[in-house]
Specification:
The complex is a heterotrimer of chains A (about 300), B (about 270) and C (about 200).
Chain A: H1 5-22, E1 28-33, H2 36-51, E2 56-62, H3 65-73, E3 79-83, H4 84-91, H5 100-115, E4 117-119, E5 129-134, H6 135-141, H7 146-152, E6 157-160, H8 162-166, H9 171-178, E7 185-188, H10 194-200, E8 205-209, E9 220-223, E10 235-240, H11 241-246, H12 249-257, H13 263-274, H14 280-291
Parallel strand pairs in A: 1-2, 6-7, 6-8
Antiparallel strand pairs in A: 3-10, 4-10, 5-8, 5-9
Chain B: E1 10-18, E2 25-34, E3 39-43, H1 50-57, E4 65-70, E5 73-74, H2 80-85, E6 87-91, H3 102-106, H4 108-112, H5 117-130, H6 135-138, H7 148-160, E7 166-170, H8 178-195, E8 198-203, H9 206-212, E9 215-220, E10 223-228, H10 230-235, H11 240-247, H12 251-268
Parallel strand pairs in B: 3-8, 3-9, 6-7, 7-8
Antiparallel strand pairs in B: 1-2, 1-4, 4-5, 9-10
Chain C: H1 2-6, H2 8-42, H3 46-58, H4 62-73, H5 77-101, H6 105-114, H7 118-148, H8 152-155, H9 161-169, H10 173-202
Classes of the chains: A alpha/beta (about 300), B alpha/beta (about 270), C mainly alpha (about 200).
Chain lengths: ~300, ~270, ~200
């Protein structure tokens, strides 16, 4: 019994249809960077768009800001959540601006001119960089502010991520702005593991973000940026002009969720994912449900 | 079973095939003619070119010079695929298609020619009976479940299914045991006589040649040594080589055999 | 196990995407491999050269190849699709060549002698008999592709690899486990299915 010729031809003929679905270009492509908060917020954007009836393709876990921007420029993704501070310093290579509104104004104007990328409404959430330590170390070494750490650095070990050592507003910037900050030991870790070193006692200070889920715990505390070195880091949906032109409703949909993403909301969601081991998709869905209880 | 009269005239005119990259020829200046339902045996040792000569007729081997005429037409003027469908082909290894039943094997050429299903089914049963096999038993059997003799009978049936003009056989009985071989030889003579299909039969076995042939073409190193009836070959060998060949081995037996066969032929006619 | 039982639909959706990726890549790979395999089978001189080249390509680390493809095709379905098609070539072509050249030469000779055109010989005699070996090649290729396709989670947001790479980034072992288990289950199922097909083809 040979394979019926008709059946074989039918299978072959169906393949392009099959592939056609896979290569479908009509979806909105939402990206995210490779850390929890970016995942959660990107997922919020994605589900908000889906809730409004759009097809969404998720390209999460992009390796760095550079990769994300490149992906936007090439049209691989249509939008993703970005921070005003990161855009200002890492992408535009300008000096930090700690006033949120000013920072937003600069990046949105420049991005539109230079990259054809539109900044939609920012969220109140300010995920600034920070240095964190354990309450125990803060007490024993009498550290409360960045100035304290700057002076005591030669006795301290730093756990951080690669980007922090390279960014102008990372360690190099701190050293220039505050002076000091020459740590006894500097080790880099994967972004998901850097707090572990601190909690395990292998480091005294860790670079951090103010909305990290761990920060909400009792063991850790953020050292105060007493001289206001760090920039504002408000998150906003950034979208390719072409995508917005093709589907203008994207602006309305995402602007509706932006105001609800506060510091508190971000910390809670981050903790839910990291500590509570919940799926970001579920956390985002819960967030959206609270926003629109009617569904 | 009606007698299927076929002209089936094959004519070789200085047929030559060169071995690639050598100045020796596989076959050289072969000239002879046969037809009208003759059973012609190509006899010679291995390497004498008999198989090559056989395969020039259905263009599996191309001629380098000379030509071959089938029923008066130069075979190179015809589409090779269409030519082969009109010529039966049987090889020693049989080459039954392992993934098909016996019936499907026999039906290959008729189905290539577009015969109707009913006509094919009828022909298959007809041929099975012709080669001495019960259609009920063998029709749906797989080649892997056949003995050597059965397989070769079906190989022959497959070759003549579409009533070809001519039949080419390349040492078809070489791989079966002696008892089966004798039976098959007898059957072949009967079938060829019934169908009147001109048959070219290749062998290196002198006794087989004598048993089957109307005429024998003795070959050596690519050339034809002699073309003659078995009796003539025996009594009037043209060269030293032919003489040694036909008298090699048990020639007393051969003498008796020829005598007996002549008698038989006389009786049958 | 936890993630699998708590998010069955999500895993199923990603598994469907994984299957879609592998199936379309396999189909495209076959479209390339069949003519390549036929050429190599018909010309004995070509075969070692062709298979050697494809074999060398096969040894390129998948992540490295993917990085190159992303530069050319961007992110998404395409780079991982192309990578899979490239990797599948070696196994598919090798088995097609082995299958065709392994067909009993007496049957091929008889087929030609009886008057089948070259295409008919291929379709009616060689292909049906080469089928078990070809399906074996498809099976091996499919298993490898199911594994390599997990990289689709890294560059394309497609397939079960999404669970694995997201799980790594989010530090959620349950997700990683779910993705790995589902991919393994897929591979086992595909292997069993194709072994069945292989066996059926062999008894034709």
């Amino acid at each position: 019994m040979r394979i019926s010729r008709a059946r074989a031809l039918a299978l072959l003929g169906a393949t392009p249809l099959f592939a056609g679905c896979a290569f479908d270009g009509s979806a909105v492509r939402v990206g995210s960077k490779n850390f929890t908060e970016s995942f959660v917020i990107a997922e919020i954007y994605a589900q908000a768009l889906e809730g409004a009836g759009l097809r969404v393709e998720r390209l999460f876990n992009l390796g760095s800001t550079q990769i994300a921007i490149a992906a936007m420029e090439r049209g691989n993704i249509d939008c993703y959540p970005e921070y005003t501070g990161t855009a200002l310093i890492d992408v535009l290579h300008l000096a930090p601006i700690s006033d949120p509104r000013a920072a937003y104004a600069v990046v949105s104007r420049r991005f539109e001119q230079r990259y054809g990328i539109v900044w939609l409404n920012p969220s109140p959430m300010n995920d600034s960089q920070a240095l964190a330590t354990t309450r125990a170390i803060a007490e024993s070494k009498r550290l409360a502010t960045l100035t304290d750490v700057a002076g005591a650095a030669q006795h301290l070990r730093l756990a951080t991520i690669q980007e922090f050592l390279a960014r102008p507003d990372g360690l190099p910037g701190l050293q220039r702005f505050y002076g000091g900050f020459h740590f006894a030991d500097v080790r880099t870790y994967d972004i998901a593991l850097k707090y572990t070193a601190l909690l395990d006692g292998n480091a005294d200070i860790s670079s951090a973000f103010t909305t990290d889920g761990e920060v909400a715990s009792d063991d850790l505390m953020i050292l105060r940026d007493d001289r206001h070195f760090w920039s504002a880091y408000n998150i906003a949906p950034i979208v390719r002009q072409a995508a917005l032109a093709a589907r203008p409703q994207i602006a309305r949909i995402l602007n509706a969720v932006s105001p609800a993403i506060t510091d508190r909301a971000a910390q809670t969601m981050n903790a839910a994912v990291e500590k509570g081991q919940q799926d970001p998709a579920d956390v985002a869905a819960a967030f959206l449900k609270r926003l629109r209880p009617s569904g | 079973m009606t007698k299927e009269m076929k002209a089936g005239a094959i004519r070789f005119e200085r047929a030559t095939v060169r071995y690639p990259g050598s100045d020796r020829n596989a076959i050289e200046d072969v000239c002879f003619e046969c037809g009208g339902g003759e059973l012609v045996v190509l006899l010679g040792p291995s390497g004498c070119g008999k198989s090559t000569l056989l395969r020039t007729v259905n263009r599996l081997v191309p001629l380098d010079s000379g030509r071959i005429l089938l029923d008066g037409d130069d075979i190179t003027k015809r589409d090779p695929v269409e030519l082969r469908r009109g010529i039966g082909y049987v090889i020693q290894a049989v080459g039954l298609f392992a993934h098909m039943t016996v019936a499907q094997n026999i039906a290959v050429v008729p189905s290539l020619q577009g015969w109707g299903r009913a006509a094919i089914a009828q022909r298959v049963d007809e041929l099975l009976r012709l080669v001495g096999l019960d259609p009920e038993v063998y029709r749906d059997r797989r080649p892997s479940r056949l003995s050597g003799g059965e397989a070769q009978r079906i190989g022959v049936a497959r070759a003549i299914a579409a009533r070809p003009q001519a039949l080419l056989m390349d040492e078809p009985f070489g791989a079966v045991d002696v008892l089966v071989r004798t039976a098959l030889q007898r059957e072949l003579v009967r079938i060829v006589a019934e169908l009147q299909t001109t048959t070219l039969f290749v062998t290196h076995d002198v006794d087989e040649a004598f048993r089957l042939a109307d005429r024998i073409v003795v070959m050596r190193a690519g050339r034809v040594e002699q073309v003659a009836k078995p009796q003539e070959l025996f009594e009037q060998p043209a060269t030293q080589y032919v003489r040694e060949l036909v008298h090699a081995g048990d020639d007393v037996y051969r003498r008796y055999y020829l005598h007996g066969r002549a008698l038989l032929r006389g009786l049958e006619q | 196990m936890n993630y699998l039982s708590s998010h069955p639909l999500r895993v199923a959706a990603l598994a469907a995407g994984h299957v879609e990726l592998v199936v379309t890549a396999l189909a495209a790979a076959l479209v390339l491999a069949v003519p390549l395999g036929l050429i190599a089978a018909r010309r004995p001189g070509v075969a070692p050269w062709l298979l050697g080249t494809l074999g060398a390509i096969y040894t390129i680390p998948s992540l490295a190849l993917l990085a190159v493809l992303v530069r050319g095709f961007g992110l998404g379905f395409t780079p991982i699709f192309v990578a899979l098609v490239v990797y599948a070539q070696f196994m598919l072509t090798r088995n097609i060549v082995a299958g065709i050249t392994g067909v009993d030469s007496a049957q091929v000779d008889a087929a030609r002698g009886l008057g089948m055109s070259p295409l008919q010989v291929l379709v009616r005699v060689e292909f049906p008999q080469a089928l078990p070996i070809v399906i074996g090649g498809v099976r091996i290729a499919a298993i490898a592709m199911i594994s390599i396709a997990t990289l689709g989670g890294y560059v394309g947001g497609v397939g079960l690899g999404v669970l694995i790479f997201n799980g790594l980034t989010l530090h959620q072992p349950q997700m990683i486990l779910a993705g790995s288990l589902a991919a393994s289950a897929l591979a086992i199922a595909v292997d069993a299915l194709l072994r069945l097909a292989e066996r059926r083809a062999a008894t034709l």
